[in-house]
Amino acid sequence: MRAFSEHTGVAMPLSEDNVNTDIIIPSREMRTVSKSGLADGLFAPWRYLDPDSRELNPSFVMNKAIYRDASILIAGKNFGCGSSREHAVWALMESGFRVIIAESFATIFYNNALRNGLLAISLHRQLIEGLFTPLRNDGAAETLSVNLDVQTVEVGAMVVRFDIDPDAKQMLLEGIDEISLTQRNAALIEAFERHDREKRPWIYLTD
Amino acid sequence: MGLESMSLTLVDKLWNAHEVQRLSEHRSLLYIDRVFLHERTGSVALRELELKQRKVRVPGHVFCTMDHIVDTTPGRSDKTLMPSGEDFIVATRSSAHEASIRLFDIDDPDQGIVHVLSPELGIALPGSTLICPDSHTCTLGGIGALAWGVGSTETEHALATSTLRVERPRNCRITLDGQLPPWITPKDLILYVIRELSASGGQGYAVEFAGSAIECLSVEGRLTLCNMATELSAFTGIVAPDQKVIDYFREREFAPSYQHWDLAAAHWADLKSDPGAAFDRDIRLDISHLKPQISWGISPEHTIDASDLIPAPADATSAEQYSSWAKAQAYMQLKPGTRLEDYSIDAAFFGSCTNSRLSDLRFAADYLRRSGSRVAPSVKALCVPGSGRVKRAAEAEGIDEVFRQAGFEWREPGCSLCFFAGGERFDDGSRVISTTNRNFEGRQGLRVKTHLASPLSVVASACAGYLTTVGPQS
Predict the structure, then answer these.
(1) Is any Cβ of chain B less than 8 angstroms from the Cβ of A16?
(2) ipTM
C-alpha cells in the first residue's frame, strides 16, 4: 500500500451529496481483472456528454482547465455510497487524487480508500466552507496542505484539525501491508479457533 | 458493573464473540466465518493473492459464484455482450480451482446470485460473520448473520487471514410497529424506511430491525428488508433470528448436520439484544397504514406513496434537498405536481438480490394468474430468478409458464439488468420499473430512468404500460 504523510495540491469541488460509485466509475468502465486502466472511466457519466464517444462535457468541473492538476477532492455528504467496488478508489488514485475531504463517507468507500493510501477526511460543512473557496479572487483554484501526522488541513493562515482512528493512521503513515501485520498475530487467530470450535463446531467445515 | 451496563445489543454480542484482538478503542480484529466471492470483484482479490504468492487460509470456508458478469439469456456460455466479460469468468474459474474453493459455475445447478445462494445453501448462518466484495452482503442480516460488504483489498485480507480489521459500528434500532396491510410487501417497507431516514440516515450504524412488523415477516421478506440497509449507508442491517429462521436452516447443504443441530439451534435461539441494551439511536415507525412505495428520483430516498404527487423542489426543506430534487427531476424527466401514473414505461425488470426469491415470484405469479393481465405491447418485461434452485422450484409450480404467457422473458439466474451485468442494458433513455435496489443515474443503461418498486408494482406496471401498483384502491 502507498504510504501517506503529507500532501499539498489543488482542490476541486464536487459539492453534491450522495455521489455514488456508479457515478465515480460505472460498471461498464471496469473492463479488466486488474486495479489499473480505470482513470478514463472516472466520473464518466458526468464527465462525458456521450460516454461511448468520450465527447467531453465542458460544464463538468473536472474538464475545467484550472482543475487539470487537482489532487484533492472536496465533496458533500455520504461520498462513495452504493457499490463496494474498490475500482472507485483505484480510478481516483490513478487520476492523481490523494485526498478527499467530505462531510461524510460511505463506510465501504472509506475503508477502501484507507487501504490504498487515499486519505479520506470527514469535516463539518462549516469547516469545509471556511477552508475552501471554489474560486479565489485571483481566478486561480485553491491549494490546500494536508498533514496526516499532526492531522491538519491548512490554507493560508487557517488550520483545521481532523480525526482519524489511531490504528488506521498508523497504517497510512507507514504504508503497512495489512495482511503481513495481521499474520504476525497468527497464533492469536489459531487460539481463537481452538476455543471457538468448542462453542460453535458447526462453523468449522473442515478438520 | 451494574446489570444494566452489562446489557448488550445483538450486534455487540456477535462482535464480541468474533473478536480475536482489540486494535484500538474502536477497531478490532474480527474472525470471519465465511467469505463469498463473485466473478466481478472476487476475481481481482484472488488474482492479487496469487500475484503476492499468498494462500487462501481456509479454502473450505470460502465460496464463489458467477452472477455479476455472466449472461442470463438461455443457452449462455462464457461469452458475454461485454467483450472482456469472458476474461473475468475464465480468470475466476481458474483462480477458484487453484485456491481449492467451492465454485458455483455457470453450469452448476446451484449457480445464482451470491446473496440468494448464501442463505439458501446454509453458507450464511445465524450468528455467523460473512463478508463478500459486494455492498448488498447486508442482505444476510435477514437470517441473523453479521454480514457486510467490503472492497477487494479487505477481501484479500479475509482470504489470507480469516480475519478483518474493522471499525466497530454504533448501534441503531429501528422498531417497526403494526402489521403490513394486505398488498404491501417488505420492499415497500424498506423503501419507506429509507425515505424517512434518508440515504445517509444509517451511516456509521449497524441497524437492528425489530418490532411486530418484523416478527410477522417471512425469512425471505427479512432478506429483502436487510438487502437495502446499505441504501441507508448503514454498516449493515440485522434481524434477531427466531424459530422461523431456525426452521429455515434444517437440511440446508452447508448448515449444521444432525450431529451439531441441537447445539446450533440452541445457540441461535439465544441471539437477541438484551432487554435494556443501549442503542445509540432508537427509531420507531408505525407502518400499519403503509401504502405501496415507488421511487421517482435518482436516490432510493427519492420515494413516495405510489398515489402521491411528484414533489416540487420549492417544497424542499433545505438547499441541498432542493438541488437534489431539481437534479433528479431533470434526469428523470418528471414534472412536479404530476403523478407517477402519468408516465408510461418502456421496460419492467423482475430480479436481483432484493426480489428474486421464490416468495417474490409466487406473489407476482399469483397476481398474474388471478388478474389474467398481460404485459403491455410497448413494454419489454423480463423475470430473472435468483438461483438455479429458485428457478427449478418455480418451474415445478408452473410459475415460469405464468410469466411467459403474460409476456415476460424467463431467464437464467444472475444479476442481469440490475446494473447491466455482462454488458446487457436497457435502451438509451428508457423508463424502467424495477424490483432492484438502486435507481442511480445510468445504472441500468445510458440515461435510463429507473423506478424502484415491489414485485407486485413491477408486474402491475408492466401490464398497465405505465407506473402503477395494485391495492385495495385499484
Answers:
(1) yes
(2) 0.94
